[in-house]
Amino acid sequence: MKFAFVFPGQGSQSLGMMAAYGDNSIIRGTFDEASKALGRDLWQLVNDGPAEALNQTVNTQPLMLTAGVAVWRLWRDKGGPLPALLAGHSLGEYSALVAAGVLTLDAAAPLVELRARAMQEAVPAGTGAMAAVLSLDAELVKAACAEAAQGEAVQAVNFNSPEQTVIAGHKAAVERAAELCKARGAKRAVMLPVSAPFHSSLMQPAAEKLAVKLASVMIAKPQIPVINNVDVLIENDPDAIRLALVRQAASPVRWVETMRAMQAGGITHIFECGPGKVLAGLVKRCAEGVQGGAMSDLAGVDAAYETVKG
């Protein structure tokens, strides 16, 4: 069998999420390493909260990066073999790059903290918004956004499954687009409780700050191929990887295409490496016939291991 790992991003966090993996020195050691790089205690934050702090973008992004890497290291410590391919949803791409040996966790933790802060600062609070559009073809969603813009920004930014596309931009434009999507036949268009219009063109100031930081970050050639969000391509050149990460901040996450690229590459099983089960649930919706699995707790890690070992 040929399998891949995918790493979750922002939105899969929950208070106490690492308790599902038991009292494990690999998990704890990974959090200690990231905490040292950031100069603050991520382990206490993930276990004790408060939940409001856990859900602040500047905290969530380093936490989810670290959680994904911790579960990856748990897998490898268990003797789990290397997957054929890796990918990550939005922030999760950074976890994938750490797993692939492109970034060290020491470098990635401050990098995603800066990314989070830059995204938060790119748009004044209350100015931007995001909405999930359900059961409407992505092309119709894009057409609704074009009609709703009226001089403001609103775009389709997360192509999560054929039935779910997330839009983002100026709040009023997003609200207009959501209504137009419903008029075009969307089952629902739900405003999301987020603090910024992630992956929209309004994130360009964040991309520019990220570019400055990434210029000084050591990037190695991947030891495992990683399919990136922005182009759905596998890049091996460090400068190309760097540029793809910069562009990713203000560009759509092309997740449906990523899953289908894995399927086209002969992948039969895709495992979500980290807390949450969102990406595992999207697998069958994006790539019919491919099996999805969630490593969201110790039992999930064990089940993935048994599946892979056959």
What do you see in this structure?
The model has no long low-confidence stretch (mean pLDDT 97). It is globular and about 55 Å long. With 310 residues, the chain is of the alpha/beta class. It has helices spanning 25-38, 42-48, 51-54, 57-77, 92-99, 105-122, 138-148, 171-183, 204-214, 238-248, 255-264, 278-286, 298-309; strands spanning 3-7, 85-88, 128-134, 154-161, 164-170, 188-191, 269-273, 291-295. The relative contact order is 0.17.
Share of β-strand residues: 5-15%
Largest sheet: 4 strands, parallel
Helix content bin:
40-55%
Going by helix content, strand content and strand pairing, the class is alpha/beta
The poorly predicted ranges are none
Separation of the first and last Cα atoms:
9 Å
**Gyration radius, rounded:** 18 Å
Strand order of the largest sheet: 2-1-7-8
pLDDT averaged residue by residue:
97
Shape: globular
Count the E strands. Answer: 8
Our count of helices gives: 13
Order of helices and strands: EHHHHEHHEHEEHEHHHEHEH
